[in-house]
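ok trying this again, last paste got cut off
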Amino acid sequence: SALRGLRAGMASGIMGSEVNNMDCTKIGASIRQLRQERGLTQQQLADGLHVSHKTVSKWDAGVHLDKDTTS
């Protein structure tokens, strides 16, 4: 499925590298690109990952989140 492909892309391209504040913009751009390539809306991705659509919006924007990202 599109969501499974996105998860695989995120795991290989994003999760494998060390993440810091400087990387948030790049990570957000990667999440947005992978999501859009697979034809997923922010809401669809949020539903599949069990997070809020607001969280996915923040990821897309490259906003760094230190706390729980499910609200």
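PB: full thing came through this time. The CA atoms of residues 5 and 38 lie 8 Å apart.
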